């Protein structure tokens, strides 16, 4: 941490889901997206949700982010916390520069101008984009845009980060680097992360705990700790072994739908 | 592995900037400004020269008497006089004021109407298709009613100009608000923008290109309505570009008639190119301008 103004609050309480159920539509057309998902993410924990298509991973994150409401069940967040949400696409505002994008949450929190500037510069340094502050999103590569999105989410100063396949659209090399970056930032800022992916290796590389969701409806069917010391490498044998185990279980879950 | 954390971090920094440099490289291509201006200008000049040639040739065939179809030479000589006459500038003042007032009123009404329809479901059901229907109504068809209501007055012209332009502007707003990418809305809400702030930080800027397109179209309608109005609603005590055009016909002043038409054409082109420039600037900023297509 370079400056005292930037110390983020770290979460004191877990992110807790109690029997969360989500139904879309009504009557005969109703689709059960989530069926009684209960889950505790401890403060500072990195949890990856893994599942095949149709497990409603994104729905779950929307519910935790408060962009949608569960049909039944309850989601408890630490007092006064609004989680930050990142998507597969960077969702940057194309009319604004890199620094303008990162500044939006700060403006919405009505921080004074001087402080905003300092915070934006610091956040852009964190994601190694200080020299690109004046560029527009369309002038950047996919990986760089996703880093801007990360900086913008970090500008919320929230201890809880929800990530919806944020690196899904990137090439392998860029993704590896962003894994290192995210791990570093997560450690530095003591964030609580709920990370959705269908890439099992990515989950094994990043997570303290991997949670496997079934498809249609989404239920937790398996959960495992990843006790590999950090920093990790995605191509290490320990990570590969964990990924292989989770992949087997994911395959048998997918196979269940084929019968 | 923990002992080489630092070197890992350094390596990763170098990798990041290396990757960034590779991916950014070659995106910007420069051509000289003069070359670009010339490339854009010469086809227009050639087209103009061709038009004047065809016009002169038509005059030479003797198809029409010269009191009806004036030759280009006479017209441009008259235009030179006209540009330095008080008549033109008095007329421009009236016409310009009418255009500005009418367009400003249409802007206010169009924005308010568009926002209301985009936001309120009932209004959309009630007015949505009516606005589009209004847009298809040729504005000159409003004049008989306008003259009945307001007589041969400024208000009659104003009424028709506003009716001509407001629906296009409203439609631009509705379209712009409707097509804000849902992902940006979700991102904005997650970043803490609610209600008015969501409009300020996400919806308004996202809708701006469509709104400007609506303004441009609205201006085109306003200008056409205004010219039609000035031809029909001639107020004897007040000169205007349209009124002068009517007088030129009544007095069989063919060169003046064409000179006025050229003024009208140039005015329309200038304002249109201003809107075009604004439109292009916004698209460039938004990153939606395709450089290959320009």
From TrEMBL, chain A:
SMART domains recorded: AAA
Keywords (A to Z) from UniProt: ATP-binding, Nucleotide-binding, Transport
Any one Gene Ontology molecular-function term assigned to this protein's record: ATP hydrolysis activity
Domain of life: Bacteria
Name the record gives this protein: ABC transporter ATP-binding protein
SUPFAM superfamilies xrefs: P-loop containing nucleoside triphosphate hydrolases
Classification via PANTHER family: ALIPHATIC SULFONATES IMPORT ATP-BINDING PROTEIN SSUB, TAURINE IMPORT ATP-BINDING PROTEIN-RELATED
Domain (ABC transporter): residue spans on this chain: 15-242
InterPro entries (alphabetical): AAA+_ATPase, ABC_transporter-like_ATP-bd, ABC_transporter-like_CS, ABC_transporter_ATP-bind, P-loop_NTPase
TrEMBL record, chain B:
One matching Pfam family: BPD_transp_1
Location in or out of the cell: Cell membrane
Keywords: Cell membrane, Membrane, Transmembrane, Transmembrane helix, Transport
The UniProt record lists the keyword Membrane: yes
A GO CC term attached to the entry: plasma membrane
InterPro entries xref list: MetI-like, MetI-like_sf
Membrane topology: Multi-pass membrane protein
GO biological process: transmembrane transport
Main location: membrane
Gene3D superfamilies referenced in this protein's UniProt entry, alphabetically: MetI-like
Transmembrane segments: 45-63, 99-118, 130-150, 156-177, 198-215, 257-275
Record-annotated ABC transmembrane type-1 domain positions: 92-275
Family membership: Belongs to the binding-protein-dependent transport system permease family.
Protein's recorded name: ABC transporter permease
């Amino acid at each position: 941490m370079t400056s005292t103004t930037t110390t983020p609050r770290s979460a004191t309480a877990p992110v807790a889901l109690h029997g969360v159920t989500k139904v879309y539509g009504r009557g005969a057309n109703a689709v059960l997206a989530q069926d009684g998902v209960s889950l505790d993410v401890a403060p500072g924990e990195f949890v990856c949700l893994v599942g095949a298509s149709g497990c409603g991973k994104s729905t779950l994150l929307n519910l935790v982010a408060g962009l949608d409401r569960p049909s039944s069940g309850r989601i408890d967040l630490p007092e006064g916390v609004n989680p930050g949400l990142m998507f597969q696409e960077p969702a940057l505002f194309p009319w604004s520069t890199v620094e303008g994008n990162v500044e939006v949450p700060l403006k919405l929190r009505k921080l004074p101008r001087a402080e905003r500037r300092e915070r934006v510069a610091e956040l852009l340094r964190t994601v190694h984009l200080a020299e690109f502050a004046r560029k527009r999103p369309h002038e950047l590569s996919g990986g760089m845009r996703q880093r801007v999105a990360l900086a913008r989410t970090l500008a919320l100063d929230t201890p809880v980060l929800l990530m919806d396949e944020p690196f899904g659209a990137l090439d392998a090399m860029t993704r590896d680097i962003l894994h290192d970056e995210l791990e570093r930032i997560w450690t530095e800022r003591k964030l609580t992360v709920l990370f959705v992916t269908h890439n099992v290796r990515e989950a094994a590389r990043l997570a303290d705990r991997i949670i496997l969701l079934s498809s249609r409806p989404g239920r937790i069917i398996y959960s495992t700790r990843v006790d590999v010391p950090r920093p990790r490498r995605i191509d290490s044998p320990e990570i590969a072994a964990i990924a292989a185990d989770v992949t087997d279980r994911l395959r048998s879950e997918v196979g269940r739908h084929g019968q | 592995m923990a002992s080489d954390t630092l070197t890992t971090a350094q390596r990763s920094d170098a990798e990041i900037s290396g990757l960034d440099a590779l991916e950014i490289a070659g995106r910007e291509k420069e051509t000289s400004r003069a070359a670009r201006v010339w490339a854009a200008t010469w086809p227009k000049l050639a087209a103009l020269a061709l038009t004047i040639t065809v016009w002169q040739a038509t005059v030479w065939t003797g198809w029409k008497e010269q009191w009806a179809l004036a030759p280009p030479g006479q017209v441009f000589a008259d235009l030179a006089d006209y540009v330095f006459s008080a008549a033109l500038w008095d007329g421009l003042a009236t016409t310009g004021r009418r255009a500005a007032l009418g367009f400003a009123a249409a802007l206010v009404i169009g924005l308010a109407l568009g926002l209301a329809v985009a936001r309120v479901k009932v209004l959309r059901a009630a007015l949505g298709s009516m606005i589009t229907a209004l847009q298809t109504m040729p504005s000159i068809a409003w004049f008989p009613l306008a003259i009945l209501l307001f007589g041969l007055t400024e208000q009659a012209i104003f009424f028709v100009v506003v009716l001509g332009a407001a629906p296009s502007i409203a439609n631009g707003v509705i379209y712009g608000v409707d097509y804000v990418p849902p992902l940006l809305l979700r991102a904005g809400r997650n970043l803490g923008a609610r209600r008015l702030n969501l409009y300020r930080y996400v919806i308004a800027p996202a809708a701006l290109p469509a709104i400007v397109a609506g303004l441009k179209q609205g201006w085109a309608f306003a200008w056409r309505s205004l010219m039609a109005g000035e031809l029909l609603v001639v107020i004897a005590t007040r000169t205007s570009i349209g009124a002068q055009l009517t007088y030129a016909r009544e007095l069989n002043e063919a060169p003046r008639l064409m000179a006025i038409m050229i003024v009208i054409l140039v005015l329309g082109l200038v304002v249109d190119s201003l809107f075009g420039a604004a439109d292009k600037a916004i698209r460039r900023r938004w990153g939606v301008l395709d450089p290959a297509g320009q």
